[in-house]
Amino acid sequence: MSPRLNIIGGGKVAQALGGLLVRQGGVGWAAVCSRTLLSAERSARCIGSASAVGGIEELPSAELWMVSVPDREISKVAVALAERSAVKPGDVVFHVSGAHTAEELKALRQRGALLGSLHPVRSIADPAVAISQFEGTVCAIEGDEEAAQQLAQLVRRIGGVALQVPPAAKLLCHAGHVFASNYLVAVLDAARQLYEAAGVPPEAISAFFSSIARGALENVSILGTTAALTGPVARGEVELVRDQVAAIDARAPELSGLYCALGLHAAGIAARRGEVSEERLDALRRICLRQGA
Question: Is 293 among the domain residues?
Answer without folding.
Answer: no
